[in-house]
Amino acid sequence: MQYTAPDRDEFAKQIQELLDANLIEPSKSPHFSPAFLVNKHSEQKRGKRRMVINYKKLNDHTIGDGYLLPRKDELLDQIRGKKLFSSFDCKSGFWQVLLDDSSQSLTAFTCPQGHFQWKVMPFGLKQAPSIFQRHMDETFKGFESFCRVYVDDIIVFSNNDKDHITHVTKVLDRCKDIGVILSLPKAQLFKETINFLGLIIDKGQIRLQSHIGSYKQGRLVRWQLWLQYFNIEFEHVEGIKNVFADALSLESYQRYV
């Protein structure tokens, strides 16, 4: 893969950060996957390009994990009607899962700085969401009546202040006991209105975030919930007609929701 001079500088910086954090190590593995940098909206917002590794070939030869992610519609039904909310985001969630020695060599990747492999679970492996979801479900087992987790997003919900203090305290204590690391800047505490999974939960009512658009909200929410059952990914390619988005916006598709 060909890299520009700015790419090489950015790789050098990020690889050194990962080495210093003991997340990766130099590799002699016969396996390798290419690494590249992306600069989409979220990266532009934080002012830092993101290193991505294309694990397609590895994923093609990997047995999947059958552990299911929660159904968003059931999760939202449980939240609907609650009065107070707090949410937490796991800091680099997948990186909190250690890899055994035999798995580390499979995650090897190449970049301008050389050949490296992960000591923790990287983003891009097809089993990663299921593995992490299982870990989080086991972590918060017994808390389902007031706490739900969708991969690395945690939401706590209650009917009143007193209960919410108790519920949030239990969740934070469990994180401390198990060693789950949270991103404090992303935490939302004791809110009547909260952002969660791309939706706004306002005093127990659920609606789309304003930047998505206010028209046809109900239909768009139903489409979002329905599409979760399919293993698909939409990607915008500059200059290419976005036929999937166009199809979803057609009035004739109303009959399917």
From TrEMBL:
A Pfam family name for this chain?
Answer: RVT_1
This chain belongs to the protein called Reverse transcriptase domain-containing protein
The residues covered by the Reverse transcriptase domain are 1-201
- PROSITE patterns the record matches: RT_POL (PS50878)
Record SUPFAM superfamilies: DNA/RNA polymerases (SSF56672)
Q: Span of the secretion signal?
A: none
Q: Which InterPro entries match?
A: DNA/RNA_pol_sf (IPR043502), Rev_trsase/Diguanyl_cyclase (IPR043128), RT_dom (IPR000477), Viral_Replic_Matur_Polypro (IPR051320)
Q: Which organism is it from?
A: Populus alba
